[in-house]
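INSTRUCTION: Work out how this chain folds

Token vocabulary: learned, describes local backbone geometry

RECORD BEGINS BELOW THIS LINE
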Amino acid sequence: MSTTPTRQDFDQYMMPNYAPQSVIPVRGEGSRLWDQDGREYIDFAAGIAVNALGHCHPALVNALESQGETLWHLSNVFTNEPALKLAKSLVERTFADKVFLCSSGGEANEAALKLARRYAVDHHGEHKDKIISFYQSFHGRTFFTVSVGGQPKYSQGFGPVPGGILHADYNDLESVRRLMGDDTCAIVVEPMQGEGGLIPADPDFLQGLRDLCDEHGALLVFDEVQTGVGRTGKLYAYQHYGVTPDILTSAKALGGGFPVGAMLATDEVATSLGLGTHGSTYGGNPLASSVALAALEFIDTPEVLEGVQERHALLREHLERINRKHGVFSDIRGLGLLMGAQMSEAWAGRAKDILPLAIEEGAMALVAGPNVLRLAPSLVIPEADIDEGMARLERAIERLVAQG
């Protein structure tokens, strides 16, 4: 006999590593979701910047249905047409010459870190193994990627972390310079820190990292898992800065909601990921590749990318208006449709308290740490949905202020 699952079933049957909200969404269309009781929400979370075209976008549904009737999966003993088309499209649209396909951002970053070390061994020797990352960075949940990430809370309690990992201060080039040496194999950086608080990189900082890597024979790795595929108003955020990495990772918006990831690299670097050095069972899966190609082709157009910038301005206008009335934010920042509102000193640590209030008002949002309210809606969210969603969010903030 079938029963309707409840939020309590999560606590009974699921591992306790998540704490989901009380409502269970069951249907989505565009930038709106409906829960089990038929209640509607405007979605400013987009699956944590994943649902780049909203829910059930026709272009993605058509790609999935068409491929689902043709071919679902092959092992990597074979290649397949959708994977080759996706790889070709990524190469043609970016600096890269080669692509490795996988199933998530964590996998993409794991592959990038392994490639960086392998390249250093191939070209310089095993002594060149140091990886420099940044405090408050986030690069995934594998043990290697959480160790490279600059938030110890994610790696503590699991035993000894991998060695050869150093951390510098984001947007502080001198702190990087002090750690650089001939044993540095790579610098790994987010062009805009996501989980670290939605902090865009200074242009001089990224250019300085490029120069340091060139000076010391190290690779520059851009983690664009969250910033990539139109999220910032360019296909990839590096294109804002005019600074080209050696390796770039992509996921989240790349599949528009279907699990897929990619690591992109130049020909020179990609050679080190030789036969048998790395793999992914579902990487290059025909279903994922077909959906990702449809998302990539739809997003990488002037209409969508210019629309991201227009929606950014509208969201910022709403946030600034709310702040003039309620004074809960000290800073509003971000690129494109990845925006953060830093809580003011009086409301420090209270960003997460907005989320359940917003849900009660019919809006879904995110946080980026305890002090930053994060908004990452669909890249094509209608302006009317922005207006209505921000009105609902403002009611939630009014309730927060009333609570004191």
Remarks:
- The domain at 7-57+302-403 is CATH 3.90.1150.10 (Aspartate Aminotransferase, domain 1).
- The chain has a mean pLDDT of 96.
